[in-house]
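Q: Fold this one first, please.
A: Sequence and structure below.
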Amino acid sequence: MLLTPGPLSDLATPKSVSDLTDLLGQTMVDVSRGKIDPKRENALGVLATAWLKSVQLAEEQKQNHLRIEVGSLQNANAFQVYAGA
């Protein structure tokens, strides 16, 4: 069975979780209407899971970086208070 690109070739790259939600919702509708092969939808689901995990890891990395910066600032302020006393 030869699959053609179909409607997926015109989809924009998701830039946010909301975009990905819209993409997955549309592809579910397209599968139910027979516009997209269920195997392709399954592949999109796997890719979406990986994409969401990478977004989550990036967010955790940002939060850890901010915690380190805040901790450094708090230590610097504590030293200034101690040194000035």
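Q: Good. Now the second chain.
A: Here it is, same layout.
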Amino acid sequence: MTFGTKLFHSHRVLIKLESIHFPFTPSSGKRKSAVQIAGTAFGTVSGQVWLGVVPVKVTAWSNGSITFTVPSGMTYATYPITVVNSQGQALLPRAFTVVR
């Protein structure tokens, strides 16, 4: 579901951010735990996922689902999850909390 489009300039790169809300589980987890994002139109070619400004290891990517691992060095805090598909379209972030 697209609610609008916002354009941002970052380091001379134009990034198109789609206002798409995507469910994910769990909304919190420990370091090294797996997180699955469900949605549509992620594309079949793997993109990138960040917790805050930290890129995470994507372990599975399909048009309707992305799975990543919470990095072992993450500080216990709440971070936005940001997804960027292979075409450079970024989905607005959702919150994820790293717990003990």
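Q: Anything worth noting on the second one?
A: Residues 1-19 have pLDDT under 50 and may be disordered.
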